[in-house]
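User: Could you walk me through two proteins back to back? I'd like the raw sequence and the structure tokens for each, with a short line separating them so I can tell where one ends and the next begins.

Assistant: Of course. Protein one, sequence then structure:
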Amino acid sequence: MHFNSRFWLKFSLINLLIVALIGLLMRYKIGFEFPFFDQKHLQHSHSHFAFTGWISHTIMVLMIGFLEFRIKNLDARFLKKYNLILIANLICAYGMLVFFIIQGYGLLSIIFSTASIVVACIFAYFYYQDLKAIPKEYLSKNWFKAALFFNVISSFGTFVLAYMMVTKNIHQDEYLASIFYYLHFQYNGWFFFACMGLLFSFLNLKTNENPFYKNVFKLFFISCIPAYFLSTLWWDLPLWIYCFTVLAAFVQVYTWFRFLFIIVKSKRDFLHQFQPFLRYLLLFVAFALSLKFLLQLVSTIPAISQLAFGFRPIVIAYLHLVLLAIFSLFLLFYIFAKALILLQKNIKIGVITFSIGVLINEIILAVQGISSFSYTVIPFVNVLLFGAAIVLVSGIGITVFFSLKAEKK
């Protein structure tokens, strides 16, 4: 018996299309009149479904696939428990998708949101147990352990937010700190460490090739927790916490660029066996991640951090950089580079269109964010962002259509 990654990854692509469609609807409401649906409710649905239905679901599927090819004599119980977890996770994701639109932070949306955390914890428990069967020489093992850890602790921020919403006892600073806590340990913890584990597995990196590979994990893990305070620099932090935060930003920049230099030097021949399109996609992801770490370092300058967190377009641009340009494109790269879904000509066109949409969207958001420093209004910016959203939807729509069509054949 085999774990059917391709079946579950079809849901991943469909869910990414749904995320893009809700984003398109939100952009339409901003640029034009559309009285139906509450914008805040759409935003909650969009973000929760993107995290649970697209990125987390896809990471779970790919991590399960990692286990399948490295554990001998898998039995039916292995497949059954993970299939049930994925079903439960999708039910929670679709529940949040619907009920956040209908009621915002209401009873049912909070129930599905809480249930998704329970599912994540169950997955973490079983996956951690199964990782024990993986030999230590697989460097991905520690990355996946850390990813599970950060996914579990990120839930603390969600519980605080839910409590505030239910009790209507909202304090602005605590509210923002809880949101950024959840976001940080999701995308800098769960998403980042899981994707790095997948990357280490994909490149087949071994300690005997370069001893720094082990240190990459240690340095990122140690710096991840103090790096949370990069999101709270608008608070009046004690000097010692601020110093640790700056140090964490420096450590991550140093670690990433040294690791990147080693990979470019040692794995160039390996990467050349893949299509140029896939290599450029990975290069785009590497550039975006490099930019992210540099922006984090620059944000430690107090004056700049006050400006950045004071303007919503800056925050939106940064989140889209992380979630679209880095994690979404990396996951698409991994799926097609590993041939988990066969890359045909029309699918390739769809992924290229989607990546162009990501680039256009990020450029517009960056220009809007930078111009907000001087309170300069960019003409027709909402129309331009709506156009970028159309490109994103078109790209992933083409990808989904031809992926499902190819599967039927």
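----
Protein two, same layout:
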Amino acid sequence: MNNQEHRIYLMTANNDLYIQLLKKELEKNQFQRTENRSEATIVLGDPPLVADHLDHFTQLKWLQSTFAGIDSLVKPGLRQDYQLTNVKGPFGQLISEYVLGYTLSYTRHFNQYKEQQNHKQWQPHSYQNLKDKNLVILGTGTIAREVASKLSVMGLNMLGINTSGIPPKDSPFSQVFHIRELDAALSKADIIVNTLPHTQETRHILNSDAFSACKHALLFNVGRGGAVAETDLLNALESNQIAHAFLDVFEQEPLPAEHPFWSNSKITVTPHIAAVSFPEQVATVFAKNLALWQQEKPLNYLVDFNKGY
């Protein structure tokens, strides 16, 4: 099947922008767009939008996700007879900014000083710098490695956790623990960052047993909401095993108005914005994959349905 026989369907929240960004690329390589789902062989889509309509794409060969997270497309019972790719490039930088920004705000009391300013109150507070603090990252993949590399510049000591216990190539981690050594790693943590994908193995991996190893650590969940056992986290905050939790992802999104996380002073809730997909960057990933598709070469960021990531 040549490019002219392929039809590309867009199912995103930014279709007009993607049409503009991809116009030259599609014309150059003679790819055609379609508004008919049954004609589409290639889809560029937001996973939550596509998931409910997968069966409409009867000729689907390849789906390029606009998100890094593809949980809604790998749920049990959904078809897997196509190639699924996601995006990875921009997220390490964005998550590094999120973690560093909130860490500095917390440790240097920036919010407290702002409140004091409102009351014209001059009251300094003691603090420690980040140098030589241990930051433990659950995961050692692309995003985790970039976060470790960037934040190590601040003098933080980077520890990783993965399923092999083997450091990745060109590892920025001073030490990598096997997932079975989770408690040993968390016992060293001043800051914990979860970047793990959602799988049966990672569901509620941060539970009462894991939190019992923690010693007043900061917790960031920028991976998947299912990694955190929510009731266990509330107990860990109450017992000071966790000093503060910065949560960007949740088991149910949007977070229900009645959820106890909203009113807990030791929890910072953000609406899944730690690392968003910028259309300009997604379009670049898609264009590169279109070139690989044209050459019948393996696509970048191919998802393994068996692993779920």
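The radius of gyration is 22 Å.

Let me know if you want the two compared in more detail.
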